[in-house]
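Quick entry between incubations.
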Amino acid sequence: MWFLPEADAVLCEVCKENDVAITLTEIDGNGVRQVRLCEKCAAERGVQTAVATPKPALESLLQSAQQQLAGAQDDVGRCSFCASTLRDFRQSGRLGCPYCYTAFEASLRDLLRKVHGSARHTGRQYGAPQTLGTAPSGAPTADRLRERLERAIRNEEFELAATIRDQLRALE
Amino acid sequence: MSFDATTLPGGGLGWIDGAGAHAGIVLATRVRLARNVEGYAFTARAREGERLRVLSQVRDALATMPSARQGMLVRVDQLEQPDRLLLHERHIVSKELAGLDAEQTPRSGAAVHVGSHHAVMVNEEDHLRIQALRSGLDLDRAFADAAALETELGERVPYAYHREFGFLTACPTNVGTGLRASVLMHLPALVLTREITRVLTGLQQVGLTYRGLYGEGSDVIGNFFQISNQTTLGRSEDELLAYLESVLSHVIDKELEARRVLLRDAGYILEDKLWRAYGTLRYARSLSFEEAMNLLSGARLAVGLKLMHGLSVYTLNELLVFSQSAHLSARAGRMLNEEDARVARATYVRETLDGASL
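Done. Structure below.
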């Protein structure tokens, strides 16, 4: 069997309704036979024109887990570094910053277990060199928040600035 | 910014040399490690200034790294669209980094450090996508290359790391090791014998996934499949790689078995088909990319089955890369429309095959 895309639209030889998607060249004991098929009839014969695209299980699992996890707890918390919420995560499928992992730790632990079958990293360990002067990931320090506040004001993002100011006050 | 791809070390194409294990079936092995720089929001949420600071920190670090000595940094955000497309066709940058989706432009700070066997993308979905590419099936070497870059970079730039969750990434599907190993395979016999659907379904059941020639969201063209691990957390890098390798060796066996069956049951018919594919490549005056890919798939299978001699895997790999639109335009020195590109493609394929006497 060999297939090439069809240049001109011709009707499927089996259902005679849809446009031909592929030409199927079957090889059997009697030699070679060519059948022109639409996508649907091809699929019925076990040939997929775009070659088998079952939705990757992980993506759909991630989606449903995200919805589940975000449903009950929307806006319960906000990441103190980037001001993301779980709702933002549900909508984009992406976290805002490394600190989100701390802010939403419990929810993420469940999600990671569902997605990876484990929530514990067992690969290479890492410690940033002392000379780089960074704290391990965790709650941001007041210095970091102040820097972030300045940046928000400079960028005229006043809503974000207000959130950060509140966090700073709470911290101090 | 005008850009000359020939100035890239090895053209960024060290992976097409046709060396490496199972080069007749496995085109290339890619290992990528996703990392983020501590102290910044992830790329999508970072402000322009933050992305530029990430870039300058990374640039300074790369400049002093032994493993990045033979490489150059390309500011993707300063390239014209045809050049960005060319880098994408060369598998050096992702569609996202190159801003190639409709109506999109690259985000400021998007860059890539290119060596003959590596490409480090900066300000992709994660701040850093450290990738190493090798010809054939070579997970160990690709991982060693990527890990060397990762280690040296991590000594100069602090990574976002969590004691429990490991290396932190924008998408939780990459967290932990941040490791994605993908192997680009040519599986025509499994497609011809219709075994492919079963094989692909099986891969998903054992926790692996597959994509088309250009990675995420791309179609399967020319019987090429990129097979990769899906989970990144809860297993060590070595375990993830060993597992992938063991499954891949089954897939290779299946493909070889399907090739034997085809030869045994339909030898002359198959041979006829493959030589016809070669004939079309050799004499066509106009070829669409998809048609060229399908015909080249036939030629590649014929070489693999030793039905055709004198045509090397290297030449086939070269044809695969350089018959893409942006490459044809670069060769012609002007933007080709689709019709002109078809004619240019047929000419290029003809000339290349002229040079390889069978």
